[in-house]
Amino acid sequence: MLEKFEKFNQRVSGWVEWIGLFALVLIMGLTCVDVVGAKVFRAPVFGALDVVMIAQLIAISFAGSMAFILGRHVQVEFFVPLLPKRLQIIVDCLVHFLGFVLFVLIVWQLFAYAYDLQIGNEESMTARIPLAPFTYGAAAGCIPFCLVFLQWFIDSLIKVFKK
Question: How many whole angstroms separate alpha carbon 67 and alpha carbon 25?
């Protein structure tokens, strides 16, 4: 059962990762065009900073869960490996639970913030791009984080009660 959930998480994270990668390519391409336009033709791209800002939000929130699954995140361990194995498993369980709660709160607050942006008709400063849809997208992009933390929490909980 947990293997199916893990495969589901990997599939969903893989799909949303492509959205994040597209945003990253957009950032690189737009920055290049903007710099060349500004330095060579004295005509920078209108609203480039706004688009890059929004694309950064999308890139981080959508590509993060796959990077997390692959272990490409910052992790500092200097105390936990010194603990007995059973206590390490309990600490892992606690950390995964806290991570799950944190990302549930992040998703909830992003949806609430997006709603506030939508009600207030908030737009970017230069290009006047509505911000609410991208904030809703960032909230949706963080849902796979919740699923991964839930999967890891259940897995570590099983390890706690197995031994």
Answer: 17
Task: Count the domains in the chain.
Answer: 1
Q: Which residues contact 100 (CB under 8 A, 6 or more apart)?
A: 146, 149, 150, 153
36: containing domain: 2-162
Taking CA 22 as the corner, what is the angle to CA 142 and CA 64, rounded to the nearest 5 degrees?
A: 30
Asked if residue 48 lies in contact with residue 127, where contact means CB atoms within 8 angstroms, the answer is no
Phi-psi region of 75 (alpha: psi -120 to 50; beta: other; left: phi over 0): beta
Per-residue pLDDT of the chain (163 residues; tens, 9 = 90+): 799 999 999 999 999 999 999 999 999 999 999 999 999 999 999 999 999 999 999 999 999 999 999 998 888 788 999 999 999 999 999 999 999 999 999 999 999 999 999 999 999 999 999 999 999 999 999 999 999 999 999 999 999 998 6
- The verdict on pTM exceeding 0.90 is yes
Answer for the pair 143, 16: CB distance below 8 angstroms, yes or no. no
Please state, in angstroms and rounded to a whole number, the distance separating the CA atoms of residues 24 and 58: 9
